[in-house]
Design goal:
By secondary structure, the protein is α+β, with helices and mostly antiparallel strands. It is built from two helices and eight strands, in the order E-E-H-E-E-H-E-E-E-E. It is globular and about 35 Å long. The protein starts with a strand and ends with a strand. The relative contact order is 0.15.
Length: 94
């Protein structure tokens, strides 16, 4: 199991947490698209949005789910759970 670390609002390292908890933190708004995350094997810390797709699962073809960033909350969502809002997209919970 991969152990993830993330930075909080004060740029302090937090974790480790598992993938499920990392996704829960995104849903709760504790982390967002630009939050830096890292796990062993990564060359460097990366924004959550850049590494999130595989965490949301795969399509029937084995391709990581496509994700987007909500213009309102800055949270990462599967594109299937988003809707257009002008020229942006927002998560359906808004």
């Amino acid at each position: 199991m991969v152990e993830w670390f993330y930075t909080d609002i004060e740029a302090t390292q937090q974790g480790p947490v598992d993938e499920s908890t990392l996704l829960d933190l995104n849903r709760e708004g504790t982390i967002h698209a630009k939050t830096l995350v890292w796990h062993e094997g990564m060359a460097d810390w990366a924004p959550f949005a850049d590494v999130a797709a595989p965490l949301f699962g795969e399509t029937e073809d084995g391709i990581p789910v496509e994700v987007g960033v909500c213009a309102h909350s800055n949270r990462v969502y599967p594109v299937s759970e988003m809707m257009p809002y002008g020229e942006a997209v927002i998560g359906l919970e808004h």
